Amino acid sequence: MKALEVRIRKARKSDVDRIIDIERSWQHLSHWSIDSYYRLLNDDGLISSFVAETETDKERIGIVGFVIFHIAADVSEIYNIAVEAAHARSGIGYQLMTAAVEESGRRRARKVILEVRKSNSPAINFYRKFEFKITGERKSYYSNPIEDAYIMELDISD
Ligand SMILES: CC(C)(COP(=O)(O)OP(=O)(O)OC[C@H]1O[C@@H](n2cnc3c(N)ncnc32)[C@H](O)[C@@H]1OP(=O)(O)O)[C@@H](O)C(=O)NCCC(=O)NCCS
């Protein structure tokens, strides 16, 4: 299927409501508090976040996905990535993750890491597409329901 064309741009504080809607469109995701999103988007330091915008109904431009990541020293950590459920599997996640990986490289990160629920096979497949590898696990990392996480890493050192 042809990927849905989106524009990737830096997230702004005014995007938080849409970001939360998209996150809440997925039942299995651990939901963050509204304050956490505002804190992240207010942090002008090492936290980065991008949104994907496209023409939605009635030719309005709307946000259909987001990625939030944090670069510390030479490690970039993906905190959260989600695409609105109605637009999943149209290449939007791929474009968001590509933007995050490229920005991480520009800011001298040598690897990108993330945690994912062991049962989240769609996301694990998605990360594998970028050649992330499982490098470890964290016991009972998630709550509601309690579940282990895989740690996945992508080497971007060259
Ligand atoms: C994971 C997620 C971000 C992927 O975004 P997306 O826009 O749906 O993914 P894309 O269309 O860009 O897919 C890229 C590739 O990832 C893999 N992939 C994506 N969704 C998949 C699924 N449901 N099952 C299997 N593989 C999948 C495929 O290899 C796909 O390539 P293909 O379509 O050419 O086969 C999205 O499904 C999502 O928001 N999920 C819920 C939130 C979530 O679980 N986030 C991760 C938290 S750790």
Summarize the entry for a quick read:
The protein is an alpha+beta fold and 158 residues long. It is built from four helices and seven strands.
Distance between the termini: 31 Å
Strand order of the largest sheet: 1-2-3-4-5-7-6
**SSE string:** EHHEEEHEHEE
Q: Sketch the major β-sheet.
A: 7 strands, mixed
Mean of the pLDDT scores? 91
Structural class of the helix and strand makeup?
Answer: alpha+beta
Low-confidence spans: pLDDT under 50, at least 5 residues? none
Instruction: Give the overall shape.
Output: globular
Oligomer: single chain
Annotated CATH topology: Aminopeptidase
Tally of separate helices: 4
| Count of discrete structural domains | 1
Q: What is the fourth-level CATH superfamily?
A: Gcn5-related N-acetyltransferase (GNAT)
Give the bound compounds. coenzyme A
- Radius of gyration, in angstroms, nearest whole number: 15 Å
CATH class: Alpha Beta
Please give the share of residues in helix: 25-40%
CATH 2nd-level architecture: 3-Layer(aba) Sandwich
The tally of strands reads: 7
How do the strands and helices of this protein lay out in sequence?
Layout: E1 7-10, H1 16-24, H2 34-42, E2 47-55, E3 61-72, E4 75-83, H3 92-106, E5 111-117, H4 121-129, E6 133-142, E7 147-155
Parallel strand pairs: 4-5
Antiparallel strand pairs: 1-2, 2-3, 3-4, 5-7, 6-7
The structure holds coenzyme A (COA).
